[in-house]
Give the backbone structure.
Amino acid sequence: MAWTREEMAARAAKELKDGFYVNLGIGIPTLVSNFIPEGISVALQSENGMMGMGPFPYEGEEDPDLINAGKQTVTELPITSYFSSADSFAMIRGGHIDLSILGAMQVAQNGDLANWMIPGKMVKGMGGAMDLVAGVKKVVVVMEHEAKGESKLLKRCNLPLTGAGVVDMVITDLGVFEIDRSGKNPMKLIELATGVTAEEIRSKTDAEYVSAL
Amino acid sequence: MGSPSSRKVYKDAKSALAGILKDDMVIMAGGFGLCGVAETLVDAIKESGVKGLTVISNNAGVDGIHLGKLLETRQIKKMISSYVGENKIFAQQYLAGELELEFNPQGTLAERIRAGGAGIPAFYTATGYGTVIGEGKDVKEFPDSPRFAGRKYIMETGLWADLALVHAWKADTEGNLVYRKTARNFNPMMATAATTTVVEVEHLVEAGEIEPDQIHTPGIYVNRIVHSPDAPKRIENRTTRPRNA
């Protein structure tokens, strides 16, 4: 037993606080918008130049001038604003965005993150990922714990980094870890997914951590 | 006799680019994916046959559309982009060593263009520090700054192009521009960062018809305008929700 993609997204949604400005990455992070807790209101930023992103449009109401960073058609809300890419990344790099939730290929116990490049394979580019992890106040990674039986939570990343010492929290299908970016404290296991034991997660994790269950 | 600024208006894309295009030039192309791209101008560049181009653009178009057309004809020598995504011809040419590629983080790319246009030769940013993007770049700390102490920053340089291809929703004959929704993206900065800025617009009105307070890009940055009311607007990922939800 472990968390499904939806359960991982629902767990990530618990990191949202009322009034937060949030950037969600592509994949499981996008699902987080389906689990925003009752009574909490957040504004979703899309780095191509929109704050206050609404849901997908009704069929027939798609607007080619209104897309998100995944190039999907979206809608506006009463709080929506539009701005240039320079203004968008001023928000991101200037520390004005409260939370970034994104996927990863690897995370290291010191908060290093790799999610943009596998040497020898065609590289699509980092897009806005390096800016987000360098600038957003809190960075939460949501990813599968393992890929092809190998731990993605490592002592050190061996893929090219997206950012060094940038991750604050990792939510996998097996549990939740906290990382102290300053390096003063070791990585902590703070929560187990449904039906997962401390022994199982230990055996599937390459990174060193202390248990704070 | 029209107003002096109406001299900026050209009858079509070909004439708007006349006398500007040359081999090995540097071109900035606005747009995010296929949103807010100056496709009519790209078509005219394809027709011109100009080659050896360095193109600064967040993305590289898709197969057969926008910059994808200039890749098909091998007119592009080098791309400076943040994400080249789903583009088979791009991948083929890149893997065969026929196309140079410089990846920039998207915010770094936007800021490099903004800086170039604002006369700023270089700036420091935390983005990319500790990654391959930071390799070989000047690293600086700012220990006396309450805001910036405790982190390391890398130097990035301002960008400038021979030609900027800008898409706007509306222009007046002076070249004052208004963008629409997320079609704004890289267009405003690129308009400021090239020797010649050519704008493709959906709507063209007389000077005075746009409320000055609503102008996004002042006409000083715009050299030439072409009215393309029928240019195609494409959707890359059409996503919808059911009405009865």
